[in-house]
Design brief:
By secondary structure, this protein is of the alpha+beta class. Helices cover about 30% and strands about 25% of the residues. It has a 6-stranded antiparallel β-sheet. Strands 6-5-8 form a 3-stranded antiparallel β-sheet, with no helix packed on it. β2 and β3 (about 100-110) form a beta hairpin. α2 (about 25-35) packs across α3 (about 40-45). The longest helix has 21 residues, at about 5-25. The protein is elongated and about 65 Å long.
Length: about 200
Amino acid sequence: MTQDEGELDSLVRKRIRALRVAQGWSLEELAARAKVSQSTLSRIENGRRRLALDQLVILARALDTSLDQLVETATDDVVSSPMIDAAHSLMRWPVKADPGMTVVRQRMTDPPPDNLARMRAHPGREWLVVLSGTAILLLGNRRFRVETNQAAEFPTMLPHVIGADGGPCEILGIFDRDARRGHQRGEDSGPPGRPAG
């Protein structure tokens, strides 16, 4: 076994144990879910039994993960820098594990527009948290006040717009692929925190 194979072997064993512990399961509970003996599972976790592909598939399923995630190796590109859109006071980070997801940080100073015709709808879902200040989210016919450390999650097929309330606010939002595309199509009319939602 090469050094890289040995490191992967050790990583997978530690990951199995960590996932089991995170679920609050004993060796006996995971063994029952995976339909393997408790002693087999213990030997797998402790490195006293060879890792077999068929057992890894069964363990991944029992741990509610995929084989890919169970054997995934660490990457060197853990830290990423934002793409900055100064014109809209935005910073964007792509989510490497899911290229369809984008994280956006935005500072807003304007309240939501008075003209509700500027509310937009598009496929997708959005999640946002207010980092500082207070935001107003207009969603369909409803008005939500979102305070510092509160979050909002909603389907973007509802017409929506967000703005600041009584002073600047800063939000961090996560957009799925469809929501991101909807915002990119509307960037000429404003960033996600304004008419785009």
